[in-house]
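Input structure tokens:
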């Protein structure tokens, strides 16, 4: 038997031990982290998720606010603490080590780690409402308790990590991510013995008037605080006190008992008690006593329920108990043959055994939007496409040149994929004809001459999803054939430098402008700076979507996929000169831009999922080189479609050695001469034909045509040469 404390009178009369249950107190940040983890990592797994919770005594929670108040006020609040419950708190820290650092949940309430105690548990997630309602919770609790409490008791691991075994809890939840709510049950594992534990409180009055109870002395408090600072939260919540002056971790129990026997001194079990009810220690004591009885082979223990008040300098609020356990049940049966029942399911706020419901709406609308914006993309990773690179997509910086019909559809497509770094470039204003065809503009954007398109489109993206990194840049793009005088050269150079900087800052460049010549400079810059370039253009009922080939940096002259200009044999000119209204506007069937814009977005996604990115080889057929497909499928060079026949054709072509935008001659001239080369190209587009040799090609074609005409005239088969024109 454990020796009695000094100065104690006759053993007190014992009664059945009554315990104060724990009560869960999940913070909204816990459910936000739960949603994030299930969506991004747990998915369809049935494995339980480790959780860590914390608890403090009711006295701790109140005393922190009353240290500067008068004694009467303190006494009043501490009386109120008697009516408080022992709360176990969960917030985003519950997933510590599980949820990655990139997750930023709601700020949780501050906790004083000095007085913090840990409880460890598991979260079991039901993926369907049917699985949730048909799970047998009694069986689940028993299974969980056997895996945590009983296993630790059997192998002795509870002595090295008592918080994990003795304070074990489980959460059984069905997070409905579409309805933004979580239905859940909480259980705090409690072993249920066949016979009750009896206990009696050792009151301070049992000590003589000149002898302060040992646990109330400043000397013991100093020893206790030093022990807490020197040991981890897992060790310091459950300890052994020897001779009222020495504290041992449970892992040192054999040495502690040996010293106690040799010195004929008492051993007291001590634990941090979350309850402050004078007649009810907290729920965990029954588990502690049961484990101690089985391991130490004793049925009688003295237990100190530590109830610390910050700033008081002692543990005078603590209580000392003499506890007696059923000897036959625990001491005479081998540990491996013990059969326990368990209790612990928490009642709801109406004190009924029923689930609780947490609304994710307790979060701000912005936080809800952040969790939900990429839900569709994340669900793809659950089953359909585990290889989906969502972080790569989210971090990809997209530059959209053109914020009109094509640009607004591409921007919406990028949002849907979770690509949230978007810069739109356009020099136009929103007109009254735009909102019905261009999905990012509204009637209000058209007033007073119209807002700048780029800024209005970026603002619309932020209204759709406030966390998007969207920026609008009003910028004119210099073009071949669009002449300017010498006084405007500085302006043009500034515009070129600004465009080049934008290209350098982004990973992907979308060419979505109205005219052919406006694509020339971005095509060149995208190639020189090694960017992914996606081009999309519209006709009345036809479209083309294509990706530009990238240079082989080790061999720039090597063959590659062609660019938008590789099929041309003439330099771009001012296509807007001398055009009627229907030729100046992009007159297309209304559904065409959406098809082409989304096709351009999807082509980018396929490209991003190929390890070679912009250098990925062309695959135009599902059966062609399947090893070269990306996780999302084939990566064609060009997609051409028509609504007239509802046709879609995949095509590919190599780069043209005399291309006026991507040929080696043009690249070298730009690198060598820079702005002077560009000025010449803008003001005299035919210089590009001369540089690439297209002018000689034209001359050779003219000569051949002339020879054909001459031969035909001589034979009498054709008319004069003036009847023919080289097209």
């Amino acid at each position: 038997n454990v020796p009695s404390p000094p100065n104690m009178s006759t053993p007190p009369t014992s009664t059945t031990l009554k315990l104060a249950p724990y009560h869960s107190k999940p913070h909204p940040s816990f459910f936000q982290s739960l949603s994030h983890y299930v969506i991004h990592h747990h998915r369809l797994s049935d494995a339980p998720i480790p959780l860590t919770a914390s608890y403090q005594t009711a006295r701790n929670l109140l005393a922190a606010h009353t240290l500067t108040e008068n004694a009467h006020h303190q006494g009043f609040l501490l009386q109120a603490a008697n009516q408080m419950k022992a709360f176990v708190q969960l917030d985003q820290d519950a997933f510590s080590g599980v949820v990655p650092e990139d997750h930023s949940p709601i700020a949780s309430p501050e906790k004083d780690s000095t007085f913090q105690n840990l409880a460890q548990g598991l979260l079991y997630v039901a993926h369907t409402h049917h699985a949730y309602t048909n799970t047998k919770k009694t069986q689940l609790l028993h299974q969980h308790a056997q895996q945590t409490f009983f296993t630790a008791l059997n192998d002795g691991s509870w002595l090295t990590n008592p918080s994990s075994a003795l304070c074990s809890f489980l959460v059984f939840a069905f997070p409905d991510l579409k309805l933004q709510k979580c239905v859940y049950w909480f259980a705090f594992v409690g072993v249920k013995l066949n016979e009750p534990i009896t206990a009696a409180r050792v009151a301070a009055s049992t000590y003589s008037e000149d002898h302060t109870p040992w646990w109330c002395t400043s000397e013991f408090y100093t020893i206790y605080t030093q022990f807490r600072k020197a040991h981890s939260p897992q060790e310091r919540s459950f300890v052994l006190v020897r001779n009222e002056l020495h504290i041992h971790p449970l892992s040192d129990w054999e040495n502690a008992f040996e010293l106690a026997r040799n010195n004929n001194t008492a051993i007291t079990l001590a634990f941090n008690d979350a309850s402050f009810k004078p007649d009810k220690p907290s729920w965990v004591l029954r588990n502690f006593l049961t484990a101690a009885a089985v391991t130490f082979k004793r049925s009688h223990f003295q237990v100190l329920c530590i109830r610390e008040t910050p700033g008081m300098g002692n543990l005078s609020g603590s209580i000392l108990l003499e506890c007696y356990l059923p000897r036959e049940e625990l001491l005479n049966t081998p540990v491996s043959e013990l059969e326990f029942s368990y209790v612990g399911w928490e009642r709801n706020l109406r004190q009924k055994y029923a689930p609780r419901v947490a609304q994710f709406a307790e979060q701000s609308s912005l936080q809800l939007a952040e969790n939900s914006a990429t839900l569709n993309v994340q669900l793809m990773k659950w089953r359909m496409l585990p290889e989906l690179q969502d972080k790569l997509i989210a971090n990809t910086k997209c530059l959209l040149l053109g914020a009109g019909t094509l640009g607004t559809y591409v921007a919406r497509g990028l949002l849907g994929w979770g690509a949230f770094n978007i810069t739109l470039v356009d020099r136009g204003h929103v007109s009254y004809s735009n909102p019905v065809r261009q999905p990012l503009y509204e009637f209000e954007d058209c007033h007073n001459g119209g807002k700048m398109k780029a800024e209005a489109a970026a603002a619309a993206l932020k209204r759709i999803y406030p966390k998007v990194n969207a920026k609008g840049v009003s910028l004119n793009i210099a073009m071949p054939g669009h002449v300017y005088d010498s006084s405007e050269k500085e302006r043009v150079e500034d515009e070129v430098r600004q465009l080049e900087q934008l290209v350098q800052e982004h990973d992907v460049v979308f060419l979505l402008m109205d005219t052919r010549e406006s694509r020339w400079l971005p095509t060149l810059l995208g190639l020189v700076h090694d960017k992914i370039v996606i081009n999309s253009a519209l006709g009345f009922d036809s479209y083309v979507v294509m990706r530009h080939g990238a240079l082989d940096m080790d061999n720039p002259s090597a063959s590659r996929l062609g660019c938008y200009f590789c099929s041309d044999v003439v330099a771009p000119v001012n296509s807007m000169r001398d055009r009627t209204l229907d030729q100046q506007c992009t007159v297309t069937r209304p559904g065409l831009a959406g098809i082409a814009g989304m096709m351009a977005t999807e082509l980018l996604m396929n490209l991003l999922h190929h390890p070679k990115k912009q250098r990925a080889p062309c695959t135009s057929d599902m059966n062609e080189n399947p090893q070269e497909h990306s996780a999302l499928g084939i990566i064609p060079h060009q997609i051409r479609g028509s609504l007239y026949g509802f046709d879609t054709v995949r095509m590919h072509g190599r780069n043209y050695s005399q291309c006026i935008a991507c040929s080696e001659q043009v690249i070298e001239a730009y690198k060598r001469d820079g702005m002077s080369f560009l000025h010449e190209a803008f003001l005299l587009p035919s210089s590009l034909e001369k540089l690439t040799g297209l002018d000689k090609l034209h001359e050779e074609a003219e000569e051949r045509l002339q020879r054909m005409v001459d031969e035909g005239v001589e034979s009498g088969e054709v008319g004069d040469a003036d009847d023919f024109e080289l097209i």
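The mean pLDDT is 85. The chain is about 35% helix and 20% strand.
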